[in-house]
Amino acid sequence: MGARIALVAGATGLVGRALVARLIADPGVGEVHVLVRRPLRVDAGAGKLRAHVVDFARLPALPRVDEAYLALGTTIGVAGSQAAFRAVDFDANLAVARAALAAGARRIGLVSAMGADARSRVFYSRTKGELEDALSALPLDGLVIARPALLLGDRDALGQPRRRAEHLATRLDRWLRPLLPVRLRGIAAGDVAAALVGAVPAARGTRALASADMQGAAGR
Questions:
Q1: What averages of pLDDT result for each successive group of 10 residues across the chain (220 residues)?
Q2: Would 172 be classed as within a structural domain?
């Protein structure tokens, strides 16, 4: 078998950037295509990387890929409304999944969230759950769903707007971490990326990774 070709949507976010770095370092991956809204500054050493500036509401035909990773996400506060949030977290991710499937992808990895449930009364959790269900209905060989708790990482370094609630939760996590069960502790974005890249290439059927399952994955 030849080297795998991977696709990442959401490559400028916490998990997305970690996904790209891990895929580039993977000797089994020959190319990493990333979909971005604006031109991406590419490291001269990242010879595998292919950046494509796209409109996620009107995606073009994608290059051939073997696997895709969906890491597009925002918050209602940043997006400005529930409709704008859903356009990113549900519509854009599903559009990429369908386009990747048409381009040959047989396996997909999704960055979802702890508590995702299509029947939830909480809009955020319900939207995440509805996306999981929509992806599960696609004719894929494998779907891996990562459901992290609070994501830990430096959003300022990525040029992303600071999320006030997330900033407070991160501080609380630091103080209370020894008292929290593993499933509720904040998790490094690199651990989520490592868990997905480790599971997606051989995935069969639908598999969900709880936050506790992914803790420390980057160091394994």
A1: 90 94 95 92 73 96 97 92 97 98 98 97 97 98 96 64 54 58 82 98 98 90
A2: yes
Q: Which of 75, 62, 78, 47 has its CA nearest to residue 8? A: 62
Q: Would you say residue 216 lies in a domain?
A: no
- Kindly state whether residue 217 falls inside one of the protein's structural domains: no
CA torsion angle for 74, 138, 99, 128 (degrees, to 10)?
A: 0
Q: Domain range for residue 18?
A: 4-211
pTM, rounded to two decimals = 0.89
Q: How many CB atoms lie within 10 A of CB 127?
A: 22
CATH number at residue 46: 3.40.50.720
